Each structure stands twice: as structure tokens, then as C-alpha cells.
Amino acid sequence: MYDYENSPEHELIRRAKRGDAEAFSQLYAEIYKDLYKFALYVTQHPQDAEDAVSETIISAFENIRSLKKENSFKSWIFTILNHRCKKVIRNSHREFSISDQEETADPEPDYAQQHDVRSAFNSLDEEERMIVAFSVFGGYQSDEIAGMLDRNAATVRSRKSRALEKMRAILERADG
Amino acid sequence: MEDRELKNIDGNVDEKWEETLEEKLRRSADDVKIPVTLEPKTVTEILRKRRKERLRKYAVRFAGAAAAACVCIAVGISSGYLNYGEDTEGGRVASSETDAASSSAAGTSGTAGQGQTEETGAAADSGKIAAASDYDEIYEYIQEQQKQYETQAEVYSDGTMDGASASSGAGNGGAVREESASDSAGSGQTDTGSYSDTNVREQGVGEADAVKTDGQNLYIQNGQKVSIVGIGTEEMEALSEIRLEDDCYISEIYVEEGKLVVLYTRSEYNEGDEGYGYYTDYTCADVYDVSSPAEPEKITTVSQSGYYDTMRAKDGYIYILSRFYADAAAPRSGISAYVPEAGGDLIAAENIYMPQGRMGSEYTVITSFSLENPEERTDSKAVFGTGGIYYVSSENIYITESLYGENDADVTQTSIRKVSYSDGILEGVAQTKIDGTLNDSFSIDEYEGYLRLVTTVTPVNNNVGIQPFYSLDDSTSSDTAEAVDTNSLYVLDENLEITGEIRNMAPDERVYSARFMGETGYFVTFKETDPLFSADLSDPANPDIIGSLKIPGFSEYLHPYGDGRLLGIGMDVDEEMVTTDGVKLSMFDISDPSDVKELSMYILEDTYSTDVAYNYKAVFVDVEKNLFGFMAYGNTPVYHVFSFDEENGFQEVFSREMPGYGDVRGLYSGDRFYLVTGNTVEAYTLSDFRKIDDIVL
Known about the structure:
heterodimer, A: Rna Polymerase Sigma Factor, Chain: A, Arc Repressor Mutant, subunit A, 2 domains, B: mainly beta, five-stranded antiparallel sheet, 10% helix, transmembrane (chain B), transmembrane helix (chain B)
């Protein structure tokens, strides 16, 4: 009886590479909430988020053998998810144009209670959302995010600052 | 208001406001409800199902022109012509022209001059399996493979695949699915009659599992331990336990004649360059003398490169199969990074069988030893090339790999590599390729020297090359709208030359399960209904479909159930063919293979899956005792035991809700039935399933 729950990550990865769905799910279980939240915040729509995560799961499971030993499962799957989110956004036509959209209603009424901080976040453009969401839900530093987005670290750092600054301005305006 | 807090903090400590804002954003997601479809449990099920649906839309490894220049050569059976044929069309022409009834070799064997085709995507290229001339040759293959991976990476630079080895493992999930035995499996040991053995793929060939018994004790793999439990009396007794080191991961155990073999993978950490360490895997078999089960005594450790995959036991010899990945980044001089070891020594080039293509990146390593004298390894061979489904008959080990549009082939294919075994001695025999891929190891079967296979042939779109999955719902493929799956049946001789075949069966359906029984083969395809086909294989040159029974739903596992009976375990499907209604048991009357009937059926309401289709070892079957058991998943996982009676059909004789989703095994010894999960064993009377004892290890 293999003990998945207490198995170290590299052993789970090895098993997942053999096609062991249980091992893969165990790896996934550690981070799936953050994956979904990331997708929800980036795509701004529950169905899109669900699609993006579903597709990410399949893609990751089918391609886990391309995960190099030195890469962490989490960063790898977050990178895949980010690509999926981009695709979903392109296909869904739900994309918000840019920052002057802050008055637009939250696309998901269920979350109206978090109107403030979420609508401020929703006013960010796609890449800003990704950068901030990587930081918030993935716990990544700017240089790591830069690696995942294929950008330079300084660019990411300044984009992130600007994004947060934008959010703060919106929140202050709303408040005042 | 929260925003005020924010402003306050912001006002006071300028550095902190960014973090605070991020924290607020994080907290705003606390109440986000994760869709049920994304829960890990659901995901496990979906991924498992997906392995059934494997490949579709998925052509990964593709075709470099480089590969067309090819290797291997092949010596036909009768004469030894060397035909580096340009006749690459041979197979294809033949295949498109034949239809469901035609047999005779397409393209290859039967036709003069084509006994050997070369690599380029012909339907089959049979050949002698050749050993490496030296390590340099192997090195070249690895570099070639690497080049191809890099090309793929450029083509699909979406980032999701990251180049390397998205290949075959993808399609078949890298998964070796192993499956179970012929006739009264469960009683591979019928002669003693007193206890059940693991449900094995091939009768007479032993296999390891998570739980074994010798009638006196239960041997249970329990996390990093192996526990030995005495079952001589009604009251179970924990006798001893063997604990492995933390860097050892137990896969399975095997017990025979007072010896316990613990099979595990040990990972050695190596400090790499630039702080990126890596692990090297060794497959080990610790052999214990358990003649005094309270004091197991270790005799030796047999080791080889790679992670453990599976093992077989026959005539007192143990055969261990592991998979070893070559490190493509290794310098030519770093031989141990790309050539596997056995017992601490590099496997000699002459013992490494080369793949059909001119490239490769992984090996199947096979080592044998006798249980009587495990200190001495009997033989070791490495089969270079990706392994997929392994099938071990009573004389041969077949290493198969699914190919998705390799070398410009326009359909999926399976490579088959045959290594004979006898008293521990291993020898490469032949290799070939056929169209289509195997569903599991029950789709390939040896009988009287002939190898019979049933495959699903899926068109591959080579223009695209790589078609990653975009959706969980791949029930239809828009990309190959006009090109549909078909199914083929092949009979191959000892040299893997096709002697007979049937193509283009059941268009747009896929094989869900198969069972070959002597001169008859049964297989289930499914799209809307479940045709159970019967094939007469008595003449290897003329296999013939003699019957097909259409019933709703599909069987995922078939097991011979006594005289003229075949048990099917699968799913029922509603009339709109949309949802599954529950797990379905069918008993088929196969006394006349040309007129198969469904005698009886039973539906487990509100269940959506079983372990049966994924792991035959999870099935408990004993035909003589007329009992079979398995775990089914509904709202909760439940272990069921059934018996079958001609008058009353299926009778559930026992069911037990299980506490978790862990692996479960049911087995009997004497007049008691044992249910083992994790560290818990429950004992029941075999006659009426009354609980008599339990033990937590």
C-alpha cells in the first residue's frame, strides 16, 4: 500500500512520470486551491478559471516527463497555468481593456462582498494581474515571476509596483 | 472599513503597504469555492479514465527526417534477405486496402521481399533485435534523441512542454498498466487449494503485490514497512516488521518458498553543478529468509539502475524490470550517466539491445536471480528504448511502446521487443512494429508460440505534429473529423512476423478490454454500445471474427469464470449514451464463441468507477470458490464481494464501506477472508463473511 500522503515530492514526481494518477493528484492537492484562485483572479471568471485549471491538469499530467529534475512541480505547473489563462482570456472575449475600466461591475457577482480590493485588482491589465497573482497566490518573488513570464526582472518589479500603486489609488478614491 | 486600515498602515510605514495590499487580496480569495471538478479526488478519477482514452489528439514524437535513414535491419525468418526497402508504402497500401474480413499479412511477412522493412513507418518492420556494438553507439543515439527533443521544443515553444521528453510517456502516461491472469487466477496455487494468490496476468507466472500470503502469514506492504502477520489461528498476530531506510521507496513484495522479496527504489542524491542536485535511482530487491516469520533474516540485496517497474517469478527465478533514464547532458566519458548498471557493474554493450529508431533516451533493465541462490545474479540485459506496457508470457518478456506518428507514420503504432527467458537466462529474440496501440497488457497474449494482439489504430495528424490536450472532454476530435479510430487484430509468429490479421474493425470505437483464451480471443470495443467480439484464432494465418454481442455499456475487465463463462466488469451507460449509470457486472455465456450471450447482469447503483480497469491486482477472483471482489467508488468507496449462480445471477455476499481511498486487497486463506488496507487487516469467515478479528499494524 503506497503511502502517497507522506511521500516526498521527488518520489511522487517519479511515480507521476510513470503515469500514476494518484501520485500526480497528490502533488496537485498541495497547490490546487492556489492554482484555482490564481486562475480566477487572472481570468476574472469562474468558468474560465475552471477551464484553465482543467486544461492545465491534463497538460501537466501528460507532459510531466518534461519536468526537469531541478524544477519544482509548483513553478512548472504555475507556468503552464499562466499560459492556459492567457489562451482562455483570448478565447473568451471577456477581456477588460485597461485601467480606465475600474467602474465596470465585478464579473462575478458572488464576490461582490470583496468588491473593494477585488475590483481594484480587476482594473489591472492582464499582465499586471498575472504578476500580482503570481506574487499573491504563488508566493513568488519578482525575479521568479520574471522567469515564468519570460520578462526581465527589473521590468516585472516596476510593473508590479505600478500595479499595486494603481490599486491603492483606486481604493483610496473609492474610500474617499 | 478595511480600506481605512490600509490607509493607516500605509500612512505609517510606507514600505509595508504593498505587502498589506497583497495580503488583503489574498484574504479576499479565502472564501473562493473551488469547483468540485477540480478537487484532487475528482482529478484522480479523471486522469485514470483518461489513461483509457490516452492518445487521441496527441501526436508528440515526430518524425525527423533524420530518423528515416535508419537502422536495423532485420533478418526474415525463412531466408535472410536484406532489404533496406524503399518500399515504405508497403504496409500502408496493404492496410488501406484490407477490410474487416481480410487477413494475410499486410505489407510484411507474407509478401515476398518484404520480410524486412526498414524504419520508415511501414505497418510493421520485423527484425532481429541487435545488441550495441559499443557505448559510443549508444551515446550517439542519446544525442540524436536529444536533438529531436530540442526540435520539438522549438516547434512547441508555448512553454508548457518545455521541450524535453514530452514524448511517449505522454501518450501512454508512461504508464505500465499491468493486468491479470487467465483461468482461475486467484488460484495460481490451486494445487494447495488453501489460499489465494495475487490476480496475475499470466497463469503460472508469479507477480509481486502490496499484500501476499503463503497460507500461514500475511505479508503486507505498509508505508515504509513490511509487516508480517500470523494467520494460523482466528486471532491475527503481528509477528515482525521490516523497516526500510528513508531513501528507499517500497513498491511491492513477493513471497515464495520461505523467501520474501522486498522490491523498492532507492534514490541517491548527487550534488550537481550550480546547486542543482539530482537523484540517481536504483532498483533493489532485498531477499529475506522468512522461514521463521517472527525473525526475518536478510540474505542479500540485488540492485540495478533505474526505478522499479515490475517483476515476475517463474521456476524459482525472479526477474526484475526497472526503467533507467539516460542523462543526455552527460559527457561521452561519463558512461555511468547513460549506461545502466546491474549489481554495481556497467552492463556490457553486448548485453544492451538497441532500439528500432536511431535514437533513445531510456532503457528497460532486466535482471534475474534464483531464489535459492540470490547472492549470484544470473543474468542482466538492458533493452534500450522507451518501455510502455510490459507483457510476460511463460517464456518471453515483451516490451512494448506506443508510438504516435513516428517516422511519418500516419497512424499510431506499437513497437514490440521480445526477450526470451528461461531459468534466469535472458536473450533478445526479435522486434517489430504494428499499427495501433494496446489498451493494456490483456490486449497482447502469447499462445503456442504465436503472439496475438488487438489494437486501436488512431490517425495521426503529422502536419501539426503536436496536439496538446485542450479540453478534458475529448470524446470527439475535431482535428481528425473524417479520420476515425479503427481496431485491428494481429497474429504474429515467433519471429514477430505477421501471419494473419484483421483490420478496420469497429470504426470509431476503441478497445476497452480484451481476453485471449486459447484459440479464441474476446474483446470489447465501445462508443455507443458494447460489442463483445469473439475471434477464432485457431488458424494463425486466418484469424476470423465469429461473433459480436451488442449490449449497453462496456466491460473494462474480462475474466474467465469457469466452463463456458466469462465475467465482465465495467460500466453501464444510459440510453442517450451520455452518462454512466453505475458499475456493471456481466456474465457472458461463451460456450459457443460464435453465439455469445449475456446470461446475467447486475448494476451497482450510484457508483462511478472501480479499480478493476486500472490494476488487475486489485481484483480478488477465485472461480472455484465462486467469489470475486473489488472496490467500487460511489459517495464512499466500498469493497464488494460477489458470487454468481446460474439461477439467481449475481449475489452480493459481502460489502464493506472503506474508510479512505487507499489501495485495498481482499484475499483468503483457509476458511477466512482478509481485507487489507493500509495498516489495517480485518478477518472474516469465508463461509458467511462474519467478522472475527481485526488488527492495526
